[in-house]
Every structure is written in C-alpha cells, then in structure tokens.
Amino acid sequence: MIAKTSGGAELSLLPAMSNRHGLVTGATGTGKTVTLQVLAEQFSNTGVPVFLADVKGDLAGIAVPGSRTAKMDERLQRLGFSEPEWRAAPVQFWDIYGSNGFPVRATISDMGPLLLGRLLGLNDTQQGVLTITFKVADEGGLPLLDLKDLRAMLKWVAENAKQIGTEYGHVSSASVGAIQRALLEIDQQGGEQFFGEPMLDVHDLMQLDPHGRGIVNILAAERLIQAPKLYSTFLLWLLAELFEMLPEVGDPAKPRLVFFFDEAHLLFDDAPKALLDKIEQVVRLIRSKGVGVYFVTQNPGDLPDDVLGQLGNRIHHALRSATPKEQRSVRAAADTLRPNPALDTVRVMGELSVGEALVSLLDQTGSPRPVERAWIVPPASQIGPIADGDRATLMRSSTAQRRYEQSIDRDSAFEQLKARAAQSSETSGTTSKSGGAARRGDGSLTDVLFGSTGPRGGRREGMLQAAAKSAARSVGSGIGRQILRGLFGSMLGGSRR
Predict the structure, then answer these.
(1) For a tag on the chain, would you pick the N or C end, based on fewer CB atoms within 10 A?
(2) Which residues have a Cβ under 8 Å from the Cβ of 102 and sit 6 or more positions away?
(3) Left if phi > 0, otherwise alpha if psi is -120 to 50, otherwise beta: which for 425?
(4) Mean per-residue pLDDT of the chain
(5) CATH number of the domain that residue 21 is part of
C-alpha cells in the first residue's frame, strides 16, 4: 500500500504493472520526495532494486530506520494510519565526484557522439565534426575512454583535416576549437572524474540483500544537479546502458529494476528533436527489459506528450494555480488522469494538502483506475538526511568499494597517438639521414591508418590493421560484442568497448 483514501480504501501499486512506468508530480513542498521514498521502500520490500538520484540530500534517510515523533503520532492518528514497522532499506551510495558515494564512471566511447554533443551544447556543424572524430577513432581501433583521449583525437583530426575531409566530410579548425573549449567547461563540472574506467556495470545496480530485498541505489546529486546537462545526460546514458545490456524478459511478475528520474524536466530542456525521439523510444522499449521508469517533476507539462502517454501509474500532488498560466497547467494535468465522477479533479488538484495526492494506478489488466484523492502512507525509514558518519559506515561495508574506488588509466587513444607520433618522428629523422629515401613515416593519414614501410624495408602496422587483429582476438575470446554497436548504442551513436 502506498496511499489510503479518507474512506479507508487502500491504493497499491501492483508489481506486475510496475514496469509500465510512472509519474510523480507536484509543486515544491507538496510531498514528492517523501512519496519517492515510500515508493522506493515498497519496491525494495518486494525484491525490486531501485535507482534514484538524491538531488537535495533528503533521500539518504532511507538507509536509517524511522522513529516516532510527536508530529508523526499526530499525523498517524488523524489519518487513521497504523504505526510503520520502523526499519531501514538496504542501500548503496554512488557519486560522480566520489565524495558521498562510490565513483560512477562512463567511457567517452560508450557515451557516444549524440549524447556527448548534447552535453557539450554543440551546433549541427560541430556535432558533425564530433561524429567524424568518433568514426575515425572507431575505425582506427583507438579507444576513447576519458577526456584526454578525446582531446588527443580531436587534435589529430584537426591536423589531418584535409585527408579526413575527402573521406568523411569537411572538418573545420573552428569547430574543433569550439569542441575543445566545451570540453574545458565539462572538465570544470566534473567530467574528468566521470569519464574513465572502471565503468559502471549496470548489473551492480540490480542486487538483492541477504533477506531478498532490493538494494536502493542512491546517487548523491546535490552537487551534480548544479550542472544540469551533466546530470540529465548521465541519467539518460544509464538508461541506454540498461537497455543495451539487459535481455528481453517480456512482462515479468515484477520489474528487474525501477529507475526514478528526478527533476525530469532537465532531460527535455533544449533537447534536439533527434534526442527527444530517442528518449521516447527508450521509454517505450525498455519496459520489455523489465525496467520501470518513473519521472519526478513539478508539472506533467514538463514532459513531451509521447513520453507522458506511456506513464501508466500516476501520483499528482498539489499544483499552484495562482495565475492564468498555472490554471491552464492544472486543467491540462487533470486531463491526463482517468476521471472519477465523484471527484472534481481540477478543483481538488489545487487544494491538496502536503502529503496528499491524486492517485491513479494500473489495475490487473493494465488499465488506469479512476483517480482517487488519497494520503501517502508514512515511510518506515527516516525522513531527511543522515549523518556523514552513518554514510561512511555503510560505504565501508559495501563490496562496490573494491571495484570502483580506484580509477584505471589503461592504454587508449591518448597513449597510442602519442606513441605513433614519436615513432613517426623517429622514422622521419632516420629517413632524412639515409639520403633521400622515400618518406613514408611523415604522419600522413594513409600511413597512420594503413601502415607504412620503414627505411630498412620493415613494415609498420596501421590503425585499421591493429583494429582488425584486436577484433579477431576479442571475438575469439567471446567478448567481441563489446566492440560491436548494440541496438541502443546505434540509436545514440555510441560504441561499446
């Protein structure tokens, strides 16, 4: 049970319908955060892992048992609720910056040019240059793992722009410079810490505790939310990873994971149509992977209609209606709920108290139930933040500490291009001393991609030859899929490595 009407009717979210996605809305201070906490507890108790972003620091309290207070006792008595069985949910803390949770990382290659271009705020021309850079790196077998890899690759592409232009299209130095400047800004927002290895394995988000309860994965996002594009792009990348890595399961008895997207409007603000189309696709398709996506935002109007239409479970807290524009928003929000003849939805939506909501959940057939006015039940865990010492204690007991705490900087595009440049310089010097032999080691695109012959007749391997050998070894060892583009990787322009 997640809510109860004043008449005593209990409203529950059916596990089998939980991967039909959902929406939690309401103005600031109306109770969305506590509702999110209650939902996370409910899913965890039914054996469903959860991922959520804690943008205010309030949701960390789910890791600590709640307790009786005078205010809680008054509320329980007034609403006719039983006292909860106070207990904590099993949690795992994550943090892009690595301070309030274990580091979360992704590689540049896995992010892909479309998502990365959106993160960098590129125009169409700059986006095209970034896509060419990924293409050349991909075909040359140069892993783009972190920001220094991408910077080195952009520099190389700019230096070989003429040759690359004949194959892939014009590459302007101005566009490369604009991308490099945008990378500096992302670096200042924490990109240097986010991009790299070890990359997050999404299966680590889908764990159960020894009692069969789903782990609640909490992303510490108080700092991250101050970089809204990095925040929203990271969450969308994570959805893409889930889609690409998880097998089809159809309609399971309960979700494999529930993913809460708080401050959901940030995902759609200024997003190009191509990206909006991909977001709509992933929301529609990821349900078959057993993942439920729940958007949390102030107003349903923050979401595109194509996305909004796929969210079957709805919890609407109060919306402000002081201005004509807000009144239109309230009417539009009311129209998204299945009508209840006994309820004036538009009027009620503007007068709901804190912790009260209009609730419409899916029934056993997948149809929305008529909307009900109800009170959200109190959580069994603590409402509000936890002490830093409690967080540190929980983190020390986690197995993720051994896997993710230390970054890895393996041989990738930066190191390989640096080595090739040194080798080319050495060969050029040797050729000059030999008295006019044909120069094949001058760093041209042909030499780098297809190899060259040294002054003594030795053959130097090119990028494409090295990539082919690497691919053959990978396929032979059973991990060739990591260098192939999966369905969603293709949709977003990423390349798994």
Answers:
(1) N
(2) 92, 93, 94, 95, 395, 398, 400, 401, 404, 405
(3) alpha
(4) 85
(5) 3.40.50.300
Cβ contact 203:49 at 8 Å? no
Is pLDDT at 495 greater than 60 in this prediction?
Answer: no
Determine the structural domain holding residue 174 and report its residue range. Answer: 108-194
- If you average pLDDT over residues 206-231, what whole number do you get? 94
Q: Which residue, chain included where needed, has tokens 């949709």?
A: 491
CA distance 477 to 483: 12
The token duo for 224 is 């991250």
What tens digit of pLDDT does each residue of 290-320 get? 999 999 999 898 999 999 999 999 999 999 8
* pLDDT, tens only, 137-151: 998 999 999 999 999
Domain co-membership, 362 together with 219: yes
Asked if residue 374 and residue 275 are part of one domain, the reply reads yes
Token pair listed for 68: 């009786």
| 475 within a domain of the structure (yes/no) | no
| Nearest CA-CA partner of 497 in 252, 227, 127, 145 | 145
Q: What is the rounded end-to-end Cα distance, in angstroms, of the chain? A: 43
* Distances, alpha carbon 301 to alpha carbons 120, 283, 361, 478, in Å: 26, 17, 19, 46
Mean pLDDT on 182-200? 90
Three-state secondary-structure class, residue 447: helix
Count of the separate structural domains present in the chain? 2
pLDDT, greater one: 456 or 208: 208
DSSP structure class, residue 493 = T
The answer as to whether 411 is a domain residue is no
204 and 307 together in one domain: yes
* Per-residue pLDDT band at 194 (split at 50, 70, 90): very high
The verdict on residue 229 lying in a domain is: yes
Residue 432 confidence class, pLDDT cut points 50, 70, 90: low
Query: Is residue 447 domain-resident?
Result: no
**Residue 194 burial by CB count (10 A; 0-12/13-18/19+): exposed, middle or buried?**
buried
